[in-house]
Specification:
This protein has 9 helices and 13 strands. With 309 residues, it is an alpha/beta fold.
């Protein structure tokens, strides 16, 4: 039996799913809350399934059926917009909103560059970024964002990945460190075994760095475990120890004053893979495919084709 849901109902559903709050969605859509509630109720009746779980103090959460509808409706609504443009002979310029996940340590390095290129090519698309590594995984599965730019750690078989860049680790030392006098000379990680380590404290990333020491049979002397990329750099610059990082800044100055110097590592240690990630089986919208092409144009594509993790 065919179902008679409407595009308006799907758009209303998308707003509620994104904001997880009926009142906020009604205000954004400029409709009454009763109109919005009625549209969602009719959708649930048509699909014969609850789309949201109502939480008394925490708003709304998508049910498994709601998550599947959100994942499937994004590309469907985009095609409807393109059909409207075709009928009016307005061309097929991309327009609307695209929510992209981006791992927070990557954002200062990548977001401004990608956004500049994307907005130049598609000025009518509004892009918003969000997320840390763990919340991005859930946002992708929930359909909150269509794709994400993130590291490979913790990305399981439920996702497809396109590897854009492999970023090797490096040692970071303060500018007055003896090894900083020869910045172009690679160093051995073993040479730092007895020096205090400033460890970046992020899920998966922390384990990634500690595994490097294990591979070399080294037990690091951890002095501080610090959240935040720039905080790590500042600790190093002020002489609290050395660190391991992947992304490199061209500016050696830190927020707290003082400078840091990155040093290449002699040992063949595993790089971090920066990847574009989608849920397996998700139908991408044209906006998200356009974003992917901009990223490939900027960084290339190590894997060539999107591959399952």
């Amino acid at each position: 039996m065919s179902k008679s849901f409407t595009l308006v109902q799907l758009r209303y559903f998308g707003a509620v799913a994104r904001l997880e709050n009926m009142t906020a969605a009604a205000a954004e859509l400029n409709v009454t809350q009763s109109t919005l509630s009625s549209a969602i109720a009719r959708l649930e009746e048509e699909f014969g399934a609850s789309l949201f779980t109502r939480l008394s103090s925490k708003g709304l959460r998508l049910t498994p059926s709601g998550k599947r509808l959100l994942l499937g409706s994004q590309a469907f609504l985009e095609e409807a917009d393109l059909l409207y443009q075709a009928v009016l002979d307005e061309g097929e310029a991309l327009a609307g909103e695209l929510v992209v996940g981006m791992y927070s340590p990557l954002a200062p390095f990548k977001a401004p560059v990608i956004l500049q290129e994307f907005e130049a090519a598609h000025p009518n698309v509004k892009v918003s970024f969000q997320g840390d590594q763990e919340s991005l995984r859930q946002a992708l599965l929930d359909g909150v964002c269509e794709l994400a730019l993130m590291y490979d750690q913790g990305v399981g078989a439920e996702f497809d990945r396109r590897v854009l860049e492999r970023i090797p680790p490096h040692v970071l030392v303060p500018a007055n460190h003896p090894r900083a006098a020869t910045p172009n000379m690679p160093v051995s990680l073993r040479d730092f075994a007895d020096e205090p380590l400033i460890l970046l404290d992020a899920k998966h990333t922390r384990e990634y760095y500690l595994d490097m020491f294990s591979q070399l049979g080294i037990r690091p002397s951890i002095r501080h475990v610090v959240s935040g990329y720039e905080t790590v750099r500042s600790y190093v610059a002020r002489g609290h120890g050395y660190s391991l990082l992947n992304q490199r800044l061209t500016n050696e100055l830190t927020y707290a004053g003082g400078s840091v110097v990155p040093l290449d590592i002699i040992e063949n240690l595993p790089p971090i893979e920066m990847s574009l990630v989608r849920p397996v089986g998700a139908k991408p919208t044209r906006k998200s495919l356009a974003f992917e092409q901009v990223c490939i144009g900027l960084y290339g594509s190590v894997s060539g084709e999107a591959a399952s993790a």
